[in-house]
Structures are given as C-alpha cells and as structure tokens.
Design a protein that fits this description.
CATH topology of the largest domain: Aspartate Aminotransferase, domain 2
CATH architecture of the largest domain: 3-Layer(aba) Sandwich
Shape: globular
Strand content: 15-25%
Number of domains: 3
Mean pLDDT: 92
Structural class: alpha/beta
Number of strands: 15
Number of helices: 17
Bound molecules: pyridoxal-5'-phosphate
Distance between the termini: 56 Å
CATH class of the largest domain: Alpha Beta
Low-confidence stretches: none
Strand order of the largest sheet: 4-10-9-8-7-5-6
Length: 453
C-alpha cells in the first residue's frame, strides 16, 4: 500500500491492484461515490473499451448502453478520433500567444452543422462551462439579467448552470444562487410566456429532450413556440444540446424536430468524439457581436484550455464522422427498434409505467410499487440496472433527476444484434423482477394479516 506521503507515478498507478486504486479513490477523492459504485455493482476493473464494448480484467465483455450519458455517440476509443489526436501531437497544444490553427476550422464545422444561422463559437471543456458561457452571453448581449428554465431540467452543477437546473436536491445546499432565475413547467408555453411578460428576461434555456429529468420528450411544436415566445418578448432562446446533440435523437440537433432556431446552442459530450473533454456554445453573429464584438469586450469570457489543439482535432474528426456515417439516421433506425422492443416488453410486464424517447435516447419509467417505496425510492430501476449488469453484462443507469427511470443511450454505432441482445436481457430481468415484486407484495400482505390489519 502506498503511503500518503509517497507520490504515485503513472507506472505505479497502472500497476495497482483494483483494491488499491479503489482505496486511494476512497481516501483522496470521494468515499461516498465509491460506496455508491460498489452498491450498483459498477465497481469492476474495466481494462479495455472499443465501440459499444467494454472489457473487464476477467476478460468479460459488457455492452455499454449508457454511452457516457451521451458522450459516446461514436463509441469508445473511435480509432479515427484517436488517430486525429495523434496526428497533432507534435503541434503546440496550448499556446495562448496566437490563434490556434484548428480553432477557426472547428468553429466553421459547428456553424455548418448547426440549425439556423448560428455562426460564432466559444470553446471550453465541459457542458456546465458551455452553459455558463451561453448564459453570460445572453446577459451581456441583451443587457438583461433574468433567466427562465424548465422544471426537471439539468444544465450542470457550476453556480450559473445550477441556478437554472430544476432540481431542488441539487440547488438547496448552495443557496443563494444566481438571482432572477424563474422556473416554468417543461412543455408549457403559456407558463413561459407569462414569465416573459412579467419579467424582462435575457433568455430561456431548455433541453430539447430532457435527459436527466427522465428522458422527457416535449409536445410537438413546443420548441418552436418557445422560440417565438422568447423573441416576442426580446429574450433569447438557448437550446442545451449537450446530451441531445450530434445525432443522438435522430437528427443532428434535437431542435430540428420542431424546426426551431435557437439564438445560442450549448454543446459538449460527444463533440469531443469520446476522447477529449470539449464543450462549446455557438451563437448567431448578431447575438455574439452585441456581447463581445468590440476589442475591449472580446476578452470578457475566456478559458485557458479552450481551443487546445488536441480537443479541436477530436472535435473536427467527431463532426466529420457523425456526418459521413449518417449517425443521426442510424440513431433514428436503431432507436425505433429499441423503443418498439421495450414497449412490447413494457406492455406485458406490469412494472413499467411509460416508455419515452427519441432516437437512441430511450427512457423506461417504472411504477413505484408500495413495497419498494418502503425499501428505497430508487429500488426498482437501480436493481434492474444491477441485474442487467450482473446477469447479462449490460451497462445502463437511472436518470439523475428521476431515479425511477432507466435510460438506454448506447453509442449510435450500435448494431441490430446488440440492440436485440439488450432487449432479450431486459425482458428476462423484468420477468425475474415481476416475481420478486409479487413475492414482496405477498410478504407484505402476510405481515399485515399477522398484525391483524
Ligand atoms: C443537458 C445537459 N446539460 C449540461 C450538462 C452538464 O455537462 P457536464 O457534466 O459536462 O458539465 C449535462 C450533463 O449531463 C447535460 O445532460
């Protein structure tokens, strides 16, 4: 065991036993999270990953149907993205003294695939940072401060992003948050218009399909109507495409479903091709220029690592592959197969309340059986995820804001055979669970009878 005073070299770290590296994580990083991973059975030593497959140190192969919460549209370690990063390894990666050679080209590529007339990009390293940048741009370009966001939303955990994230559990411990942020029900244009009428707002930020909120697809026409309501009241319409972007929902961006035209989109996750941490916001020229278009204002929002060469190379290659391999079409087709299969299983299961989703962003909401409630709110979906992992070697997870929902978000390169394997496993696990729930219900009844109820 390494002492707390010893410096661990990379060689040491790579040679550690699983037990040792977990102990270091527990001591030096986050003991609670460590326990949580252990509880859901994700505490394994994964040593290789390629495409949809992850391999542990016993040589067992797992199908990754979580897909890095939307960060792995191209799958694990896509060889062309790995190669793209290698190809620029001799170039200066971080050189703030001049304009990076690949930054403009990635800006152009993002503009080319973005909806509407989005043009100017800012590059950063994560989703939350992209959201921070978008919110600040909305404020500076409109000269207004208030913001509107949807209940159940998830935009990140930094202070600004958290202030527009509609989950009490995440917000409460950090109050006071950014003032002037108003929550409205997701999918309700009337409520949005009422707030925009009452307050001078800089922007409304929304996920076109809510991810962490439980994979919630808004009513048709909602996004377009929200855009129009914003513009009627002088506010900007910001689409958070961090999880939905780059083909995930069956189109390059999920706002395209409604033909909505955001003033700003925030992207991250799959923009880095599953290899580099990379985020961005992309705005119309008018909006960006109103905010930062003069030489005294052009440095008001920056990031040291933003625009680093390796991340730019990964981003360029990622966009090229999504377009070239028509991954949005593949997401639509595989998503239909997956959703139809899950719906069929849901109809017979007696456990599933609803199946939702668009493209390869599919959520399954379970009923909360009374017995399960007393055990744990997260009992049913997390135990189904655990069974999928242990018995079938399939990686899934529940959604952060709604733990009663299991998500299926595999890489967009998933094959029909892989989808079918997961469906078979899911059917099996649901059947197994039905038995357990019945047994619990029976036990509950027996205990109540014995107590004389
Ligand atoms: C829609 C959405 N926005 C923002 C974020 C935050 O991204 P990050 O974790 O990279 O900060 C996420 C992460 O799950 C997300 O799904």
């Amino acid at each position: 065991m390494l002492s707390t005073h010893e410096i661990v070299t990379l060689e040491d770290a790579l040679g550690l036993e699983r037990k040792e590296s977990v102990a270091l994580y527990r001591q030096f990083v986050n003991p609670g999270l460590c326990t949580l991973f252990g509880v859901v059975g994700l505490d394994r030593r994964f040593v290789r990953a390629h495409g949809v497959t992850v391999v542990d140190d016993q040589g067992i192969e797992y199908l990754d149907f979580l897909g890095g919460y939307g960060a792995l549209n191209l799958g694990h370690n896509h060889p062309e993205v790995v190669d793209a990063v290698r190809r620029v390894e001799e170039m200066p990666n971080i050189l703030q003294a001049s304009v990076g050679a690949l930054v403009g080209p990635l800006g152009q590529a993002l503009a080319a695939v973005s909806p509407g007339v989005l043009e100017k990009s800012f590059f950063c390293n994560s989703g939350a940072e992209a959201v921070e940048g978008a919110l600040k741009l909305a404020r500076i370009s409109t000269g207004r401060t208030d913001l509107v966001y949807a209940s159940g939303s998830f935009h990140g955990k930094s202070m600004g992003a958290l202030s527009v994230t509609g989950r009490e559990k995440y917000q409460a411990p950090f109050r006071p948050l950014v003032p002037g942020c108003h929550e409205v029900p997701f999918g309700d244009v009337g409520a949005l218009s009422a707030v925009l009428e009452q307050h001078e707002c800089a922007a409304f930020i929304v996920e076109p399909v809510q991810g962490e909120g439980g994979i919630i697809v808004p009513p048709d026409g909602y996004l377009k109507a929200a855009e129009e309501a914003c513009h009627a009241h002088g506010a900007l319409f910001i689409a958070d495409e961090i999880q939905t972007g780059f083909g995930r929902t069956g189109s390059m961006f999920a706002v395209e479903h409604d033909d909505a035209r955001p003033d700003i989109i925030a992207t991250a996750k799959s923009l880095g091709g599953g290899i580099m941490p990379l985020g961005a916001y992309t705005a119309t020229d008018d909006v960006w220029s109103a905010g930062y278009g003069s030489s005294d204002k052009c440095v008001l929002h920056t990031s040291t690592f933003g625009g680093n060469t390796r991340a730019m190379a990964a981003g360029l290659k990622a966009i090229e592959i999504v377009v070239r391999d028509e991954l949005a079409v593949r997401a639509r087709e595989s998503g239909e197969r997956l959703k139809a299969g899950v719906e069929r299983i849901a109809a017979d299961s007696g456990l599933i309340k609803e199946v939702r989703g668009r493209g390869l962003m599919v959520g399954v909401e379970f009923y909360e059986p009374k017995v399960a409630k007393s055990l744990s709110h997260e009992y049913l979906s997390s135990s189904i995820a655990a069974l999928l992992l242990h018995d079938h070697h399939i990686i899934t997870a529940y959604t952060l804001n709604n733990p009663n929902v299991i998500r299926f978000e595999p890489p967009l390169i998933v094959t029909d055979e892989q989808v079918d394997r997961v469906l078979e496993a899911f059917e099996n696990v649901c059947a197994h669970h039905r038995g357990i729930v019945r047994a619990f219900a029976g036990l509950g009844r027996t205990m109540l009878t014995r107590r004389g109820h």
